[in-house]
Amino acid sequence: MLSDDNVGVIGPLNAPQTFSPYLCNGRFTTYRPSRNTYAEGSILLIRSNVFKEIGGFDLNYKWAMFEDSDLSMRIRQAGYRIEHLDMPHQHFRSSSFNTVPKEIRTTIMETNRAKFMARWNSAAWNGNVSGKEVFDLRSDGIGDIFAALPSVFSYARKNPKAQITINTNKNIWSLIPSLPNLSLQDEATITPYTTSDYDRISSIRNVNYSVPFNIGDLLAAALGVPPATPHDISSFTEALTASTPPLSQHITMPKEEYVLFHCESFRPGFQGRNPGLATFEPALKLLSDKNIPIVLLGSKEGSHRLSCLNQDQVIDLRGRTRLTDLVTLASNARLFLGIDSFPMHVAQCFRVPSVVVFGSLSPFTRLWDIRQSYVVQARDLDCLGCYHANLTPSIPHCLRGDEACLKNISSNDICDAVTAALAGTPPETAPMIADLRRWQAQHCLVHMQHPGLKSKVFSGEGVPLTQVTDLLYNFIGAVENQFDTERHDAHQALYTLAKEEASKKDREISQLQTALEEKDLQYTELAKLVSQMAIKNGYSNYKEAQANENGTSLCDLSFKLHEAQISFDEDKIIFKSTGNDPRIVIKDTFYVVEDMPFLTFLGTASSLFTLEVFYTPPGTAFSEERKRSIQIEGGSFNQIMRLPLKTGSRILLRIDPCNTPNCDIVLTATLNGLQQAETLPLAN
Length: 684
Hints:
There is one protein chain. The chain is 32% helix and 19% strand. The chain has helices spanning 48-53, 67-77, 102-126, 142-158, 215-223, 230-243, 277-289, 323-331, 342-349, 404-407, 411-423, 430-449, 465-536; strands at 7-12, 18-19, 36-37, 45-46, 81-85, 132-137, 163-168, 182-185, 200-203, 259-262, 294-296, 314-316, 335-339, 354-357, 373-376, 564-569, 572-577, 584-591, 596-605, 609-616, 627-632, 635-645, 650-656, 664-671. The strands form six sheets. A six-stranded parallel beta sheet has the order 12-11-10-13-14-15, sandwiched between helices.
């Protein structure tokens, strides 16, 4: 090893030197000898630089099986050899593994086997490690392909040694950010990709989209890659924005915030998806009456005039946009309104609040972030989401023959959802989750009860079918009892809370009077800190008493505090709360002196909180409806918020710890594109 830099690892000579993924490590199949060289993990020598280069052991594997096989494959993929040396040692094979029950051993073995085969399906069969992988993303639905891209892009970015080919429709290429190890092909079939030349070949062609799981997770599992995390999706949107060309010359971005509307569907036979333009017209008129511009997307075939709208507020781009134009338009929209479609997936990817109508599909299976999604469905129908009853890949078909899931949709419900989305009211997610659980329960029931299905995920050897049936009914009964108990407890808690609130009011009035005096003192101290910090950061035009057009001091900070502390340190807000639901509002924090596309928020938080940004275009009055909000989990965060910020706009930032006591937040706000500002205590 010291004399040959190409040797990456040395394994023991007196242990198996090859493995077969079809049985256990070190064993051979009778029908195909294994050609997979590896170094068994009981004792091995590995170069530290090689170990760091490939990222060490893959922690996705459960303890005990396949982790050394995967390590060896990745060492070979990185271009290093595996050698073996006589290293005298005593190894009681599987002695630790055999201490756990058989059922647990089987779970570990089969789970790790599936993970290994997902990564090395072709290489494991051929014994060749080429470092080349193919992800076949071919589908009739552009939205399906787009939903798979964040997971594939994240995998390619995190595995720079792998040479990855994405085989997909050529018109999709513009939506795939470039990476040094990523290439694009457009082959109608996967036949040109022979298994001997690639470590794995994964495809989404035969995915059953009716399986009741989120489409992003479903496609990632079909491709054998980890599903994209929120951070992965943010990295993908950032790369996509950077690689997207400017808008087509005939398109002019609206000067004010706008709503993106799309309700066309041309896939033959796809029922329960599009209620028709007439159902949306009241909501479109509501937006028009509020003087909110509406950008119409679609094809030339659907471009008839909407006479009910103020035409000055309509920007008709039907049949006039490229896919990259749609990315730019969706990423800067205030709201998306429409149906489950490719434009909806793009808007969801960029975390744009979305009002979406669903019929034959369960909303949870198609939405990227239910916290930004306002779902509208028909009421009092037990067949909603019927598509998820299909056992094989197909398209939705209405067995009722009347598509009641679309005809019964209320235009008033769409208007209410639009109003809630514009106001920033959090959407109701419980019905979506309950609907998904209903279809998942049916999915489990079919796989458990059907005697002929090949998938025996839920079956156990030697267990009579009657016992399985009893177990299922007992489970359903337990769930129903739990729901009844929770419902009773909830009603009782509400009744008790109402009684307690009545008695608390008198006490709170006196407490608030005392707190008001304390807050006045805190306000004075905080204003001094802001003034000192602004001067310290070199904003020479900053004057503590200077007034704006509203007669309010430019450094004015108005906030509501309840047992909370706030301080400024360089470009950070350090917020510490010990009370219940403190809320801090930093008003007229800064002015925008140059057009900018987005804000970046970095920091850490000990728990969940909501970040709200209100922005006022130049020459307009402040309105709480003109805002963007994001909900951030605890821990480190890096969030990008896209805003149509024009020169002269004003920004107001609000932090809401969401009823969480003892919440500590350290926040850094970066305004990309800003060159100078008069009062900017938060800017880098």
